[in-house]
Amino acid sequence: MNFLVIGLSALVPLVTGFIWYNPKVFGTAWIKTTGLTEEQLKSANMPLILGLSLLFSLMLATMLNGIVIHQAALQSIVMGDPDLQDPNSALSILLKDFTSKYGNNFRTFKHGVFHGVISALFFALPVLGTNALFERKSFLYIAIHTGYWVVTLGLMGGIICQFA
């Protein structure tokens, strides 16, 4: 895992959010769909909100790493095997050969975007949609948030896949 790339990709939701929820983009429509007032939004504890948002973004980036980098699956299968400690073991040699031959397969920005978008559609949408349905939120509410996560997770996945 490349912790620098994961940390940098964790900034993507904050940057994307500042743009996406700007009043000139979707911010005005979002405020209307939430039922919140400008005064309520201004009274928020922004350091706490931004701090927790960054923590959640780090969690998302860590999860995306395993989704967008297929080579991580092989390593996770043999993670606890004692033969990994011996560089001359058959397992270590197999992993070295595998990595040299296939280590860069599917390691493109485009491939990471694909998996990020799929993650948004199959994880974020069902969670957001279910909550919104029970909270009696509108389709527009779901669309604004889901669109944000499609763009955000797509960019995060692309960055992680290309550079991690």
Question: What does this entry look like structurally?
Answer:
α5 (46-68) crosses α9 and α8 packs antiparallel against α9. The protein has nine helices and no strands. The chain is mostly helical and 164 residues long. The model has no long low-confidence stretch (mean pLDDT 95). It has one domain. Helix content is 77%, strand content 0%. It starts with a helix and ends with a helix.
Keyword list:
single chain, 164 residues, mainly alpha, 9 helices
Summary, kept brief:
This protein is mainly alpha-helical and 164 residues long.
Major sheet: size, sense and barrel closure?
A: none
DSSP helical segment count: 9
H-E string: HHHHHHHHH
Give the rounded overall mean pLDDT: 95
- Please give the radius of gyration in angstroms: 20 Å
Structure summary, number of beta strands: 0
Structural category: mainly alpha
Using the alpha-carbon principal axes, give the shape.
elongated
Q: Identify low-pLDDT runs.
A: none
Strand content is under 5%
N-to-C terminal Cα separation, in Å? 7 Å
Number of domains: 1
Helix content: over 70%
Task: Please write out the topology.
Layout lengths: L2 H7 L2 H9 L2 H12 L3 H5 L3 H23 L2 H7 L12 H13 L6 H26 L4 H25 L1
Helix pairs in contact: 2-9, 5-9, 8-9
